[in-house]
Amino acid sequence: MANSKLIVVEGPQGAGKTTITDYLRYSLSYTNLYRLCGTSDSTETGKKKAEEMYINLIEYMKKMENKSINMVFDRTFFTEENYCRLGKKAYSFTDVYDRLLDDFAKLDFEIYYITLYLRDENLYNERLKREDKAKFQGSNFEAENSINQQRVYLEMADEIKEKYSNINVINIANDRDLDEVKQELRKILNY
User: Fold this and answer.
1) Is residue 37 a contact partner of residue 136, using CB atoms and an 8 Å limit?
2) Residue 116's beta-bridge partner residues?
3) Residue ranges in the chain modelled with pLDDT below 50
4) Phi/psi of residue 69, each to 5°?
């Protein structure tokens, strides 16, 4: 039997992570969905909290190896690194991020790192006006923030692709017809 899939979906606020991760959860057999948001502590002490949280998350993923279950994550430690690179936290997370990414790459899964983005950045204005959007401390839901996050997520995807050949790095433009995006996902994930 092929390895279970470990799928991390990242992207800026308004890129459609909830829609896509819900779709993956219900269309890919034997799949658990996890939604993460990180710690609200943006001070220097928050770095230690985030580090411990994500080390525990990687340990949990490791315990789930070879259990015949797929795992889909709506955000993980990649979000923490993105926010820190954008100066939204009072610390740098890169040293921790690099260690976490190394451990992530060693997991015994078929690993997919998916970045959702919008080719038409003006759509962020429209998408972020929705009332059902959660509000996060330190990151207002404004189009400019999402555009900056998108730029950094795409840079991060390029870095991961260059360094880790076993991680399937996929960038998906999520401002197309949803059925088209779903079809692309089915083809990429081979189900």
Assistant:
1) yes
2) 172
3) 1, 137-139
4) -135, 135
One-letter amino acid at 45 equals: T
pLDDT in tens, 121-143: 989 988 888 755 555 544 456 88
Instruction: Please say whether the dihedral angle defined by the alpha carbons of residues 140, 145, 147 and 148, taken in this order, is positive or negative.
Output: negative
Q: Which residue has the tokens 């017809």?
A: 177
Which ranges of 69-142 does DSSP label H, i.e. alpha helix?
77-85, 94-105, 123-127
Q: What is the pLDDT of residue 19?
A: 96
Strands in 89-162 per DSSP E? 110-117
Q: Please give the structure tokens belonging to residue 95.
A: 């040293």
For the chain, strand residue ranges (E) read 5-10, 31-35, 70-74, 110-117, 167-173
Predicted confidence at residue 59, as pLDDT, reads 98
- CA dist., res. 117 & res. 126, Å (int): 14
Around 112, how many Cα atoms within 13 Å sit in the side-chain half-sphere? 25
pLDDT on residue 38: 84
The confidence score (pLDDT) of residue 63 equals 97
Determine what percent of the chain falls in helix, strand and coil, rounding each to the nearest 5: 45, 15, 35
Cα–Cα dist 5/69, whole Å = 8
Cβ neighbours of residue 17 closer than 8 Å, sequence gap 6 or more: 9, 10, 11, 74, 75, 116
